[in-house]
Amino acid sequence: MSAVPDPLATGPGALGAAPEPATTPPSAGRPTAERAVLRLARPYLGRLVGAGLLATATEFAGLALMATATWLLMSAAGRPPLDRLTVAIVAVRALAISRGVFRYTERLAGHDAVLRMITDVRARVFATLTARRTTGHRSGDVLSRLVSDVEAVQDLLLRVLVPGSAAALVGVLAVTGAALISLPAAGALAVGLVIAGVALPVLATAVTRRSAAQVAPLRGELAADAIDLTHGAADLAAFGATDNALRVAEHRARRLARLERRLAATGFAVDAAGVLVAGLTAGAVVLAALAADVPGVLVGVLAVGSLAAVEVTLALVAAARQWTQLRPGLARVAALLDVGTPTPSAAIGNLTPDGPYDLRFARVTVRYRAGAAPALDEVSLDLPAGRRIAVVGPSGAGKSTLAAVLTGTVQPESGQVTLNDRDLSAYAEEELPRAVGGLLAEAYVFHATVRENLLLGRAGADEAALTAATAAAGLLDWVRAQPAGWDTVVGEEGGQLSGGQRQRLALARALLAAPAVLVLDEPTEGLDPAAADAVLATALAATPAGHSVLLISHRLSGLAGLDEIVVLDGGRVIQRGRHAELVATPGWYRDQWLLQAAAERGYLALTP
Ligand SMILES: Nc1ncnc2c1ncn2[C@@H]1O[C@H](COP(=O)(O)OP(=O)(O)OP(=O)(O)O)[C@@H](O)[C@H]1O
Questions:
Q1: Do 245 and 179 share a structural domain?
Q2: Which of the residues 90, 277, 508, 600 could staple to 529 if both were Cys, CB 3.0 to 4.6 A apart?
Q3: How many Å lie between the centroid of ligand 1 and the Cα of residue 18?
């Protein structure tokens, strides 16, 4: 098979060798991660610019407050006219109050915009990761991407761009203000601000870039280790591999701690340099003002104002440091969503869940490794809208591979898969699940309520839809018997459910999603024969007419009503036809049918 592009691949697992530093360089031709984030933020740009202006107003109010208060204190000693003092007192009060109001509204506007955007980004990341579920990402790493990498997008806007642009604007305003009093003093201030706001951030970024780039992937790997060590504890102990796995995880944890200590130490050094720059700038401004014969009170105002202005501009150092740490996460989110790169689907238009869709496999060959035997060997298949087919065959025949090709998670080496006469690869990965999807191998059940697990299939589905899907999957009686009903929590990976209940829940979610091309990979696995027949019949009956179904099954019972049954063996189609034809023809299907029927008769005879 041609490899599925995997921008997420990181270092080895807990049982593997000690980790190598992993970074994700932005690939050529792709927009930079920052530009990609700005593209994502475009619908919320107005609110973000508003937040930036409010942040500028906040910082400027603080600076003006310091300068006015200094003028008030220094000129009070000279007993100026009372009305001048009164104006200054009112200004100090007004600035103090407005600073709080500006800060509050800035936080409100900035967080409102960013949280809206983040919801959108997280949903897209989740959809893309779900679509790529067979590409082998470790679950802890996926969790880390969903949580910390998406937070990097939030932090870039809230902690870097908004405060950074506010600091730069306030710097310009401060120099303009100083120039009104004395040009040489303004020149000295400008030099100090450039050192604090440009040179120091560049230095901080250069010094911390390498360590910071290693921190995010390392955190992802450590999260994956933690999950593997917890979930796989029994297996690790059984194979005597616990010590080795712990050693690898500890090695990673120590490396992470070392990197974070180094980053913190560099941060403190840069902070100290910032304080030094503030003091030196104020000193230079005072000297320049005195040399230019500026009156004493205004020299004081310039000195305190310069200290405050440098302090504000030093926010750029924090922003730059933050930015360095965020870059790997941002690059991974951008690469994952591949935002900005116009996808062919953009030209095609959005896929709708209802179709109609005609799906066609033409001589499709899949090979997982070069030189290995093909998992699918020149398989052709027609799945026009409304048709229902089953793919059966022995273990390893290529059934799940066929489903993976259909959902776009595995690319064929040769041949073509088309959806409405367009190659499947022409559709965006996150868009395809709207048209093609269902219950795929090893469906994941989340540590959440029954309702939340179901709503993942179709957000916003009403109670009637939940009830219908759950009834079709044969889980409704169980849900109704639970004290918490739909709000019953199913445990980590559905651990508080039986295997059969977990399978029914996953099936109900697939039926609720009701994509126009429904793939059901072993939907009745783990159910006893009678329950399996009943669930398969209700599930097929619940699928809307006009939607097509591709059922993958080991069991041959319940397939009589399907339009076609395709028998795979060793990746090749060895038989195809309707159930009645196949049981009448000597071959794998008839042999297997007779074997299964006899085994199930025996099972039923033994069942009380
Ligand atoms: N991710 C993978 N990497 C390498 N080889 C794979 C991968 N997935 C499947 N294969 C190989 O491809 C072949 C077909 O596997 P597939 O899972 O499609 O079979 P299947 O018919 O679904 O089997 P089962 O009924 O046991 O689930 C097998 O030989 C299998 O070893």
A1: yes
A2: 600
A3: 29
